Amino acid sequence: MSRLSAPLGNKEAQNGQADMDIGALYRNYRGYAFSIAYRMLGVITDAEDVVQDWFAEMQSKDMTEIRDVKAYLAKGITNRSLNVLKSARKQREVYVGEWLPEPLVADYDSPERTLERQDVISYAYLVMLERLTPMERAVYLLREVFQYDYPAISEMLGKSESNCRKICSRAKQSLNSEEIRIDGHPAPDQEGKRKLIERFIAAFERYQLEELLELLSEDAVMITDGGGHTRSAIFPITSRKRVLALLTSPKAFKELRGWQAVLTEVNGEVNLIFVKKGQLKGILCLQMASESNRIQHLYLLLNPHKLNHVLA
Asked: What values do phi and psi take at 95, rounded to 5?
């Protein structure tokens, strides 16, 4: 009998579960469900759909048969997300240019899309997870982020414990070279980052090469995502020299310089959004190098289809 869905051990616990109707279940666990789906998929609308579908299915379930609601939810959301992700991977193979996840912008009022303040995920971390296979991503998140033990993960994903351990180890090795803050930990020195971004945008708008040179790390990388709908670089721009050439080009970001740049919280950290006449036109997320107060990664999202969920 399943450890996650076995009948509860005592009558009092059974009554407690039976009293939790679908409305209470949704209110209590929708944030947790979305946090799993969003980390798995990196697409807000897809994550919402997975969450809504799971709760809709729960309307016909007898909750007295569920021993651990939270773990049962994690199993259902993870497996639904795996199915979506496997299909999405095929679509991304024909995606025009680089694919970036959809960011969570502060003050966007939708409970399904809101993560608790202590449960934020940095945008750089979300981008990093794209390096993993769907199954590596599932095992890694369940173990390292949501703190499930290997017996529970084994049951959730239908794989042996030893296999889950190997998959998690492989995922860690894939991510080990990236110096990005651990998911859920407080972002370092946001006031310092705010001041640096203010210097960056001022230098960018004025083509100040020397100032930008000082702000970028030697191994700076810029990734732009236009999805074929707006002009963007097809491949990552690597090295400070090449990123600097792009940022100071009179043609490359002519429209971007004409939009209003606004500092706001994106995925729990201060970043930039670009607005034109009240309409969101772009989001720029910056990741600082750990060994210096310089910008190492620049993620510029311009694909309008990935910005529809944000009200500027």
From this structure: -65, 140
Pure H helices in the chain: 11-18, 22-41, 44-58, 69-92, 123-129, 134-140, 150-157, 161-175, 190-205, 209-215, 240-247, 254-258
- Encoded tokens for 38: 């969003």
Say whether pLDDT at 116 is over 90: no
Which tokens in the block code for residue 278? Answer: 């009240």
Residue type, 180: I
Inform me whether the pLDDT recorded for 68 exceeds 60.
Answer: yes
Q: Are 113 and 102 in contact (CB under 8 A)?
A: no
Q: CB–CB of 283/303 below 8 Å?
A: no
Instruction: Report how far residue 140's alpha carbon sits from residue 138's, in angstroms, rounded to the nearest whole number.
Output: 6
- For 25, residues 6+ apart whose C-beta sits below 8 A from its C-beta are 55, 58, 63, 69
Q: Which percentage of the chain shows pLDDT scores above 90? A: 60
Closest residue by Cα to residue 292 from 222, 185, 189: 189
Q: What is the Cα–Cα distance from 252 to 248, expressed in whole angstroms? A: 8
CA dihedral angle for residue 128, residue 311, residue 286, residue 258, rounded to 10 degrees: 140
Q: Facing residues of 261 across strands?
A: 274
| pLDDT tens track for 117-144 | 446 788 999 999 999 999 999 999 999 9
Counted residue by residue, the chain has a size of 312
Name which of 195, 241, 191, 220 is nearest 300 in CA terms: 220
- 118 CB burial (10 A radius; 0-12, 13-18, 19+): exposed
Q: Do 222 and 236 form a contact (C-beta atoms < 8 A)?
A: yes
Structure confidence by residue, pLDDT tens digits, 217-236: 999 999 999 988 888 888 99
Q: Alpha carbon 180 to chain centroid distance?
A: 13
CA–CA separation, 222 and 244 (whole Å): 10
pLDDT at 247 over 70: yes
The overall pTM is greater than 0.70: yes
